[in-house]
């Protein structure tokens, strides 16, 4: 998380104007970063809550912008805020699934194609449900590290904790996820359980 | 050499085709690598979801609505509560200069308009004044009927279309304007097709009023009118068109152009001492918040037969206004006839309350006890408040009694009264 990167002028201007209470600048800021934030929220919050939490992130952005001093890049600041809001987000009861679309991956790994690797819809739902059974702290570390590929040191910075804590949470999160998957007949095979 | 592989090494081996000699002699390490491979396969196959354009549009609408609200101070700093504590009935109005609801993008209106049935986009509710349904942020369902003093919709995904309705309309493939006026702002070639009185009006960047008898009053922009499937006829504002006959527009259509007038964010937290509030003749639910044109507005406070009309001047500054205190006169005692009618109505509805006890009895066979309901009954006979005093009664039963009591249908006692209803809860015959 490098501080002090010069920001593009237009970006600077947008953030400054939004911080000064310019509603249209804030709307533009939302338009510019909404996809990035929604993408960061994936798996951190249940998909049914994505819309609400995205809104909450930007409400917090609106409240906190006047305190943003530009010591880090705006995107870095926004990412931290997103993760923190996601960790505090409370489950909504009885929400209908809203119209969500799958993200198109920007890059494709070598090796198996995404189609080959893709879980069935049912498994996808089950794995997402497992993730939601983890505590917010464990889930956040697991998603950031194992799904997003962010290293432990960077996670520690975002979460404002130390690397040892991150590693400990990751260890227990993985263990818990494996245990939960082994208890699910549709997922047990991933860990050598009965098919 | 450590007894086991480091976690990073386990993850690395799970990812790559690489092997490690250590694995040959460490069964536990092999098991850890196998599990890591399973986890990587499990998580690697996940597909992230994101929102659709409409979803992002809804969030934008709700967000802009949310940030337009004044930040509510902690309750102990609310002037209204302070005043209430001092025994004053107060109504607090915050005025704040608010942004125009949705500025129209600056693109010019396309000179060429295709008069074809429009592929109508889903409209997101940006703001509603009046009845309050639907709510800001909702997407209008096909065929939804909206009746509002002023409702503003936008094609939130592209922000190319703004529609303001004053009155009632049904939003389907075309908009059926049942009453009132419609304003359309389209930044592209989109047209709004609305129907009223057998006349179809196509418009883009226009303000018009369509009357039931098939008359169109166009106060701004250009519109086309067509009777049935006939050829459309072009109209330029200002004009009144009725069955093919044009005449001067005798009255200005009272449709504000978006962003033309300065607006104020208007909020009402509570009206202590009063039962209801109307804003410009429309009942509003509290707390209320909305964007209004600056200028005078009429607030009507009501309680029973008492009412008070106050005109407030909305300016750009933040202001606080105290409502006139409702003179609390001692309520006259209800007449004997009214009391008898009330008691009869209450007695006839006690079986409804008994159902709560029966539920308790099913769960706990020896359940019994006593309860006192304190009902606040409005002058019209509506139960506006319920307090249950019942030591030993389960919370579920208390909640049931409260819910049921609020639904009691009671006759008027002539004024607001508080009535105590004692209940003895025990099985029959004991």
What does this structure look like?
- The complex is a heterodimer of chains A (195) and B (430).
- Chain A is an all-alpha fold and 195 residues long.
- Chain A has 9 helices and 1 strand; from the N terminus they run ααααβααααα.
- The longest helix of chain A is centred in the last third of the chain and has 20 residues, at 163-182.
- Chain A is elongated.
- With 430 residues, chain B is of the alpha+beta class.
- Chain B is built from 8 helices and 21 strands.
- In chain B, strands 3, 4, 5, 6, 7, 8, 9, 10, 11 and 12 form a 10-stranded mixed β-sheet that branches. Chain B has a 4-stranded antiparallel β-sheet with strand order 15-14-17-18, with no helix packed on it.
- In chain B, helix 1 (7-15) packs across helix 3 (27-44) and helix 7 runs antiparallel to helix 8.
- The longest helix of chain B is centred in the first third of the chain and has 18 residues, at 27-44.
- Classes of the chains: A mainly alpha (195), B alpha+beta (430).
- Strand 1 of chain A pairs antiparallel with strand 1 of chain B, so a sheet runs across the interface.
Mean pLDDT across the residues of chain A is: 77
* Helical content class of chain B: 10-25%
Largest sheet of chain B: 10 strands, mixed
Structural class of chain B: alpha+beta
Radius of gyration of chain A: 18 Å
Mean pLDDT of chain B: 70
Largest interface: A-B, 47 and 33 residues
- Beta strand % of chain B: 35-45%
Residues in helices of chain A, as a percent range: 55-70%
**Total helical segments of chain B:** 8
- In terms of DSSP E residues, the strand content of chain A is under 5%
N→C terminal distance of chain A = 43 Å
- Output the helix-strand order of chain A: HHHHEHHHHH
Q: Which residue ranges of chain A are poorly predicted, with pLDDT under 50 across at least 5 consecutive positions? A: 1-11, 92-117
Number of strands of chain B: 21
Order of helices and strands of chain B: HHHEHHEEEEEEEEEEEEEEEEEHHEEHE
Oligomer: heterodimer
Number of helices of chain A: 9
């Amino acid at each position: 998380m490098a501080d002090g990167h010069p920001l593009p002028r237009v970006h600077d201007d947008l953030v400054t104007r939004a911080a000064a209470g310019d509603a249209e600048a804030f709307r533009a800021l939302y338009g510019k970063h909404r996809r990035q934030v929604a993408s960061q929220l994936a798996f951190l919050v249940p998909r049914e809550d994505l819309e609400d939490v995205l809104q909450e992130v930007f409400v917090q952005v609106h409240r906190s912008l006047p305190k943003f001093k530009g010591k880090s890049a705006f995107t870095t600041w926004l990412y931290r805020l997103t993760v923190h809001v996601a960790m505090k987000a409370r489950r909504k009861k009885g929400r209908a699934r809203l119209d969500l679309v799958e993200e198109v991956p920007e890059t494709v790994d070598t090796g198996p194609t995404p189609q080959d690797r893709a879980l069935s819809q049912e498994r996808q739902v089950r794995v997402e449900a497992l993730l939601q059974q983890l505590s917010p702290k464990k889930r956040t570390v697991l998603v950031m590290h194992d799904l997003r590929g962010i290293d432990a040191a960077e996670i520690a910075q975002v979460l404002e904790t130390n690397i040892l804590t991150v590693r400990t949470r990751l260890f227990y999160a993985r263990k818990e996820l494996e245990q939960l998957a082994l208890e699910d007949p549709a997922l047990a095979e991933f860990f050598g359980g009965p098919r | 050499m450590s007894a086991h592989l480091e976690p990073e090494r386990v993850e690395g081996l799970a990812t790559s085709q690489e092997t490690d000699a250590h694995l040959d002699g460490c069964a536990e390490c092999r098991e850890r690598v196998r599990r890591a491979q399973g986890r990587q396969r499990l998580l690697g196959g996940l597909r992230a979801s994101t929102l659709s354009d409409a979803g992002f549009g809804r969030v934008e609408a709700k967000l802009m609505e949310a940030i337009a609200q004044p930040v509510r101070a902690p309750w102990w700093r609310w002037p209204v509560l302070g005043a209430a504590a001092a025994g004053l009935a107060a109504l607090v109005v915050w005025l704040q200069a608010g942004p125009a609801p949705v500025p129209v993008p600056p693109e010019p209106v396309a000179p060429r308009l295709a008069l074809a049935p429009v592929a109508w986009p889903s409209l997101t509710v940006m703001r509603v004044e009046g009845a309050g349904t639907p709510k800001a942020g909702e997407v209008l369902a096909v065929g939804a009927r909206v009746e509002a003093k002023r409702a503003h919709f936008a094609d939130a995904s592209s922000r190319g279309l703004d529609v303001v309705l004053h009155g009632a309309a049904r939003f389907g493939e075309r908009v059926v304007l049942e009453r009132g006026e419609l304003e359309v702002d389209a930044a592209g070639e989109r047209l709004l097709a609305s129907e009223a009185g057998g006349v179809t009006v196509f418009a883009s960047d226009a303000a018009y009023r369509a009357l039931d008898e098939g008359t169109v009053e166009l106060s701004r922009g250009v519109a086309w009118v067509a009777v049935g499937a006939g050829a459309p006829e072009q109209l330029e504002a200002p004009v009144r068109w009725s069955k093919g006959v044009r005449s001067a527009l005798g009255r200005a259509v009272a449709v504000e152009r978006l962003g033309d007038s300065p607006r104020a964010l208007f909020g009402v937290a509570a009206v202590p001492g009063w039962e209801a509030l109307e804003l410009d003749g429309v009942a509003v639910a509290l707390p209320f918040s909305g964007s209004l044109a600056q200028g005078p507005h009429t607030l009507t406070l009501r309680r029973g037969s008492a009412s008070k009309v106050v005109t407030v001047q909305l300016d750009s500054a933040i202001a606080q206004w105290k409502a006139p205190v409702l003179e609390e006169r001692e309520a006259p005692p209800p007449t004997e006839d009214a009391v008898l009618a009330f008691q009869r109505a209450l007695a006839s509805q006690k079986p409804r309350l008994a159902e709560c006890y029966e539920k308790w009895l099913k769960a706990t066979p020896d359940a019994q006890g006593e309860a006192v309901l304190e009902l606040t009954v409005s002058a019209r006979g509506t139960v506006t408040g319920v307090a249950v005093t019942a030591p030993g009664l389960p919370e579920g039963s208390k909640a049931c009694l409260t819910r049921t009591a609020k639904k009691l249908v009671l006759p008027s006692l002539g004024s607001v009264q508080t009535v105590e209803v004692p209940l003895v809860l025990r099985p029959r015959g004991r």
